[in-house]
Amino acid sequence: MLAALDGVTADAALAALQRLTPAIQALLMHELAPAPEPDPWELRG
To answer: C-alpha angle with apex 10: 6 to 14, nearest 5 degrees?
Structure first.
């Protein structure tokens, strides 16, 4: 029973991870992306 439960849990976790991976990658790319350069025209006021 416990082994079957572990197998189901592992499969469910893997499926959830595969669904979440694109969201995680998008979030990481957003967080790691360099900040946009300030516009020189805006800096001059």
So the answer is: 175
Looking at 1-45, list the stretches that DSSP marks H as alpha helix, in order from N- to C-terminal side.
Answer: 2-32, 40-44
Q: What is the phi-psi region of residue 18: left when phi exceeds 0, alpha when psi lies from -120 to 50, beta otherwise?
A: alpha
Q: How far is CA 41 from CA 33, 34, 38, in A?
A: 23, 20, 9
**How does DSSP classify residue 1?**
-
What's the distance, Cα to Cα, between the start and end of the chain in Å?
A: 70
Q: Give the global pTM.
A: 0.40
Which residue, chain included where needed, has tokens 């360099």?
34
Parts of the chain with a pLDDT under 50: none
